From TrEMBL:
DNA-binding segment(s): 54-73
InterPro entries in the record: DNA-bd_HTH_TetR-type_CS, Homeodomain-like_sf, HTH-type_TetR-like_transc_reg, HTH_TetR, Tet_transcr_reg_TetR-rel_C_sf, TetR_C_16
Sequence segments annotated as region (Disordered): 1-33
Domain of life: Bacteria
Native species: Actinomadura chokoriensis
The protein's name: TetR family transcriptional regulator
Length: 213
């Protein structure tokens, strides 16, 4: 048997470690690129709305190749949906004690009013709602993130109708922001606004009262 030269076993191990590091780099590079693309898309959709943004604009702001945007996300519409999902916090607001749901929704609404600057999610929804290409995406977002979670919190009949009524209050803030701005609402007493909204959500979510004939 020949003598084993010291260091002979370390070379393959070092090479293996180098390969593993090289294998990790592409994954980290992809994750970083995806993050830059999502950040760029969020900012641009919030500023210009869905129709005012192109994949080329997103790629340029993200300092990425246009082909990578399509490879990672498939299409502008799919990227828009990914941005909506990532920015949404409403499902977390809805989750919790069903008895406290009206108050939580009211407090969330008031936080959105007081955000300075307006949140990216609010800007995206304001500037993109009503655009035909994203109608299905917005419907899916509303159903998955707001309507169904609210329905899961409700007992009694007509749960979907009650959830949709509450959703109307939540989503109706967009047109008010676009047409009137938020100056007057921000000037109002937040506690009073929260109390009024709590009453509105309570009425919207309450089971229907069956009137006797």
């Amino acid at each position: 048997m020949g003598m084993r030269v010291e260091g002979e076993r370390t070379a393959p191990s070092a090479a293996h470690g180098t390969r593993r590091a090289a294998d990790r780099r592409p994954k980290r590079d992809r994750e970083a690129t995806e993050r830059r693309i999502l950040d760029a898309a969020r900012d641009l959709f919030g500023e210009h709305g869905y129709d005012g943004v192109t994949v080329r604009m997103i790629a340029a702001q993200a300092e990425a190749n246009v082909a990578l945007v399509n490879r990672y996300f498939g299409s502008k519409a799919a990227l828009f949906e990914e941005v909506l999902t990532g920015e949404s916090v409403i499902r977390g607001v809805i989750a919790g004690d069903p008895a406290g749901l009206p108050r939580r929704l009211a407090e969330h609404f008031v936080r959105q009013i007081d955000q300075r600057p307006t949140t990216a999610m609010s800007r995206i929804l304001d500037r993109s709602a009503g655009q035909p290409e994203v109608k299905e995406i917005l419907l899916h977002y509303l159903e998955d993130r707001i309507v169904q979670p609210i329905i899961a919190q409700l007992d009694g009949p007509d749960a979907r109708a009650r959830a949709l009524l509450a959703s109307t209050i939540i989503m109706g803030g967009g047109p008010v922001r676009r047409l009137f701005g938020l100056t007057d609402l921000r000037a109002a007493d937040p506690a009073e606004v929260t109390d009024r909204l709590t009453a509105m959500f309570t009425a919207a979510l309450a089971p229907p009262v069956r009137r006797e004939m």
